[in-house]
Design a protein that fits this description.
Length: 388
């Protein structure tokens, strides 16, 4: 096997081609958009380059056939609660079903990271935000959500045989849109609704700046502590909203307020992969026409839970039931095209959010796993600590 550093456009194209070659016949696989993968490795588009660097390789056999790929990255902003060592990342892994070949890919990433002072590597993860390309699919080998990793089952063996160990599981839940919620939701919703200072409203595309401000306030209070202390500015939130705007359905993204101050958010989007699976990886003119036609004819029947958060001072007061039922009044209307709801992954270290999912009556739909490999084999992997 030969490993080749990706350092020009032709090799970058082969980096994309490896994934297609090794996954095209795997049931459930949806080809990602080329531009989404390319953006990860473009310093002009990926802000992670401001705080780190990455390298990637392709692997070929003696006949010149593509047999694997891997990327490695160092990001000074990448931290997890409880980390005691310097941790790098590896991802975008693909490999034929051969341990020796996989070991070569892993060793290459490890060596590159060690040269930069890292003592462990997590993978497969993204060089950037955690909502995309994060974790190895270990259960639930059906159509992935947009931006979600997908791989054949044998990848689990390749990782674990090399020495990767469970750092945390990422659990997705799904449910039918028209399913009945537990009685306690209605009881708590009724109690909160009696106070006229509470209100809920869905997002409006013509007021994105206002909702971006609300998003950043809630995120920084409820979530920044779980993202290595990384806060989000109003400008960053507005940029995120503008990216989502073409796909956004106003009626499935909700905010709750107390005396007009933002206290909770429940943001959902139509599953973009329901469109992408018809595009063969290309968001060209034909791909855009497919997207517009499917959107106009309401061909997407699945929405995805992107983020759910309540500011600490309003947690445990029934606000979760309030915002969910206020949103459900609209989302469950027969005029809406959706019949299935799946939540983006929840870390197994987050019991509060796991409880929200199960109390909704949702069932686990798939599990992805973030693995960690310690470079010193005498140092055990410690699981991600449970959030209090």
């Amino acid at each position: 096997m030969e490993l080749i550093l990706v350092d020009n456009a032709q090799k970058a194209a082969e980096f994309l081609a490896v994934h297609i070659r090794l996954n095209k016949d795997v049931p459930g696989w949806i080809r990602p958009l080329d531009k989404d993968i390319e953006a990860v490795f473009d310093p002009e588009k990926n802000k992670a380059f401001r705080h780190g660097e990455c390298a990637r390789w392709i692997m070929k056999d003696k006949q010149g056939n593509l047999t694997g790929r891997v990327a490695a990255f160092v990001n000074k902003k990448y931290t997890n609660k409880g980390d005691k060592v310097k941790v790098g990342g590896m991802g975008f892994f693909d490999c034929i079903d051969q341990q020796e070949a996989a070991n070569l890919l892993f060793d290459t990433a490890k060596k590159w990271l060690q040269e930069r002072g890292m003592e462990a590597m997590d993978g497969p993860i993204n060089f950037g935000e955690r909502n995309n390309w994060w974790g190895l699919l270990t259960e639930g080998y059906h159509e992935p959500l947009y931006g979600m990793n997908f791989n054949p089952p044998y990848y689990v063996r390749l990782f674990e045989t090399y020495g990767f160990r469970l750092f945390f599981n990422q659990i997705c839940y799904d449910m039918h849109i028209y399913g009945e919620l537990a009685d306690k939701f209605y009881t708590r919703h009724a109690a909160v609704s009696q106070d006229p200072d509470y209100s809920a409203r869905h997002i409006r595309k013509n007021q994105l700046e206002k909702f971006a401000q609300d998003f950043s306030i809630i995120y920084n209070k409820a979530w920044a502590q779980h993202a290595g202390g990384k806060e989000m500015s109003k400008g960053q939130a507005l940029s995120l909203f503008n990216q989502m705007k073409p796909l956004m359905d106003e009626k499935v993204a909700w905010f709750a307020y107390y005396k007009d101050e933002p206290i909770a958010m429940w943001l959902n989007l139509p599953d973009l992969n329901q469109y992408i699976k018809h595009m063969n990886g290309k968001m060209n003119l034909w791909g855009k026409l497919i997207f517009l036609w499917m959107k106009l004819t309401k061909q997407c029947h699945k929405i995805v839970g992107i983020i759910f958060g309540i500011v600490p001072e309003f947690q445990g007061k029934g606000v979760d039931a309030y915002i969910i039922l206020e949103g459900a009044k609209v989302i469950q209307r027969k005029s809406m095209p959706y019949n299935q709801y799946e939540m983006q992954w929840i870390g197994d270290f987050n019991p509060r959010m796991l409880n929200v999912a199960t109390s909704l009556g949702a069932e686990p739909s798939r599990i992805l796993t973030t693995y960690r490999c310690m470079f010193d084999p005498n140092v055990p992997v410690e699981r991600h600590p449970i959030l209090k």
